[in-house]
């Protein structure tokens, strides 16, 4: 919120409001301190390194959809997600082509687990053809692909929270959950959201219908008059 709004007690008021949200209290993760210092794994520039994973199964939804294919850019933390009924190597190829290459360019590195859809043909052969370096996370230590693991948790927790508040199925709530993730600040006390790092601009929320942000007030464009 601090990208478009400010009042002296904004942080305190926001914290108090979140404490009153029953769904947030139930589904928010309990923070745990790591046993050892963590070594961050990131990328030097946007869209060069992506983490990918499969989330599910969820309860079958429209069209038999019960899995999510998730990709996360290691630099901006921007997520790309596609719901599928089943996930094959061919579908992963189509996902990378449509959701990553055609939008952000050819990646240099893709990090995944050792699942056969990722490690075997046709996806492994396709990566070699496009000179994409495949890195596999350790089975014993999946945290080595922690970027996408955290995004997976955020998606699942977001869906659970919204299902506790609205009567609808998880697939219908997915776009709202992704919007929330994409507009969240990248790090605490940072004003850089995933949308700014990815698109260079702020994604305005529906709150502007009731409370215009500083950007809207500053750059409001008046409707041009059309001669009769």
UniProtKB/TrEMBL annotation:
Q: Which domain of life is it from?
A: Eukaryota
The answer to whether UniProt assigns keyword rRNA-binding to this entry is no
Q: Which residues form the Integrase catalytic domain?
A: 42-202
Gene3D superfamilies given for it?
Ribonuclease H-like superfamily/Ribonuclease H
Please tell me whether the keyword Hydrolase is annotated for this protein: yes
For this protein, the record's Pfam families field holds: rve
Protein keywords: Hydrolase, Nucleotidyltransferase, Transferase
Give the EC number(s) under which this enzyme is classified.
Answer: 2.7.7.-, 3.1.26.4
Which positions are tagged coiled coil?
A: none
Q: Which GO terms describe its biological process?
A: DNA integration
Residues of the signal peptide: none
Instruction: Give this protein's Gene Ontology molecular function annotations.
Output: nucleic acid binding; nucleotidyltransferase activity; RNA-DNA hybrid ribonuclease activity
Q: Which SUPFAM superfamilies match?
A: Ribonuclease H-like
- Protein name, per record: Nucleotidyltransferase, Ribonuclease H
């Amino acid at each position: 919120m601090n990208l478009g709004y400010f009042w002296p007690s904004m942080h305190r008021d926001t914290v108090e409001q979140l404490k009153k949200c029953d769904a947030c209290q139930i589904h928010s993760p309990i923070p745990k301190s790591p046993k050892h210092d963590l070594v961050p794994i990131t990328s030097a520039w946007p869209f060069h390194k992506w983490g990918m994973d499969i989330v599910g199964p969820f309860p079958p939804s429209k069209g038999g959809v019960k899995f999510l294919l998730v990709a996360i850019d290691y630099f901006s933390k921007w997520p790309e997600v596609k719901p599928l009924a089943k996930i094959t190597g061919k579908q992963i190829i189509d996902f990378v082509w449509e959701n990553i290459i055609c939008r952000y360019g050819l990646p240099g590195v893709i990090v995944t687990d050792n699942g056969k859809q990722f490690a075997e043909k046709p996806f492994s052969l396709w990566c070699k053809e496009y000179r994409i370096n495949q890195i596999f996370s350790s089975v014993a230590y999946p945290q080595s692909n922690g970027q996408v693991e955290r995004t997976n948790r955020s998606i699942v927790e977001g869906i659970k929270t919204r299902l506790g508040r609205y009567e609808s199925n998880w697939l219908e709530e997915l776009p709202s959950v992704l919007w929330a993730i994409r507009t969240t600040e990248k790090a605490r006390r940072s004003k850089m959201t995933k949308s700014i790092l990815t698109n260079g601009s702020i994604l305005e929320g529906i709150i502007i219908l009731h409370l215009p942000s500083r950007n809207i007030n500053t750059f409001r464009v008046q409707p041009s008059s059309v001669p009769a």
